[in-house]
Amino acid sequence: MLIGEYTGKVGEKKRVSLPSKFREELGDEIILTRGYEDALIVVNKKLWESIASEVMNGSFIDKNIRDTSRFLVGGAKEIELDTQGRFVIPQALFEHANLEDEVVFIGLINWIEIWDKKKWEERLEYLKENSDKIATEISKMNKQVNG
pTM (2 decimals)? Predict the structure, then answer.
């Protein structure tokens, strides 16, 4: 299970080191793509195939399917880790997440998000301030779905 929060530095050539706990869970075949709220998403190939299948099973006639495909699939890259678990973040993804010199890796059960440290601190503050409201909205959605 991918859980926890780890910080890291951005090195030369936009290289970062994936925390060892996450490397053990993900395995060797890793996909990096654009995420929401200016984050990046890291998944293993098995989960990526599931995501891609969901997107591909939708009709390309549907604008939301096309836009989701463009956003997630269009920016995706297969990532190769070196022996120390480091990888280079491609320029387009680096710019998407507005990364600077420090990043935060957030384990979210099935995937990892990579945030610029300052952006993550801002988002975390938002989550702290709005956690009750967010939980209430999720509860309402669950009641609608489950009747």
Answer: 0.88
